[in-house]
Amino acid sequence: MSFLQLILLGPPGAGKGTQAARIGAEFKVPPISTGDMFREAIKKKTPLGEQAEKYIKAGELVPDELVLGIVRERLNAPDTAQGFLLDGFPRTLPQAVALDQYLTEKGQTLTAVINIEVDPEILVERLSGRRICQDCGGVYHVVTKKERQPGICDLCQGQLIQRSDDYEETVRNRLTVYSQQTAPLIEYYREAGLLLTVDGAQSIDDVYQAIATGLRKRVGQ
To answer: Is the pLDDT of residue 2 over 70?
Structure first.
């Protein structure tokens, strides 16, 4: 398998986590989310991790410079020797430019940027209808995956709740922020000839097949 350096873009609810796991398994690259990077750096008590923890505990955004430092730290880990899949980074154009500079310094370039597109109204329905078991974390949906007994998890009998960030008004705000942040990024990667856009409204399997087919074409397989 070729050396792949990938970025996964997509709004909240687009199914990035599910697709990242499948891409990682088939193409033998570690899926790395921003949250994972922070948790790892904090757990290992690296200097950057300890700085980031202060912002996170205060409920503040971690500054770009610190985020970039943690990304570099993570991308130097041994498991990225065959490539990586970044999920949740970069979020802004300055972060994208800084990542390019970092890779250029290492004599490397990105292979592709996968962009999962979904109509915002579909995402609102997906996320605002989601219910989570507060005990085991099981995921349900008021339309597409109903529990057998109302409000009770099928797996552990725990209570199902709606997360505060899944309320419709919050979801719409999250989507607006994502769109504002990411529109310049999408254009940046399109101009660089790296963008691979797939329709995220399809089934999970069809979305994955579209991604896998696009990646194989790019690496000549």
So the answer is: no
In a domain, 12, yes or no: yes
The yes-or-no answer on residue 130 being catalytic is yes
Q: pTM here?
A: 0.85
pLDDT at 121: 95
Digit-coded pLDDT (tens) for 71-127: 998 999 999 988 999 998 998 899 999 999 999 999 999 999 999 999 999 999 999
Residue 159 lies in a domain: no
Residue 70 lies in a domain: no
Q: Which domain CATH number covers 99? A: 3.40.50.300
Q: Identify the active-site residue in 74, 91, 126, 131.
A: 91
Can 74 be counted among the known catalytic residues? no
- Residues 51-61 have pLDDT tens digits of 988 888 887 77
3-state secondary structure the chain: CCCEEEEEECCCCCCHHHHHHHHHHHHCCCEEEHHHHHHHHHHCCCHHHHHHHHHHHCCCCCCHHHHHHHHHHHHCCHHHCCEEEEECCCCCHHHHHHHHHHHHHCCCCCCEEEEEECCHHHHHHHHHCEEEECCCCCEEECCCECCCECCECCCCCCEEECCHHHCHHHHHHHHHHHHHHHHHHHHHHHHCCCEEEEECCCCHHHHHHHHHHHHHHHCCC
163 is catalytic: yes
Residue of 163, 190, 216, 217 with catalytic role: 163
In total, how many domains does the chain have? 1
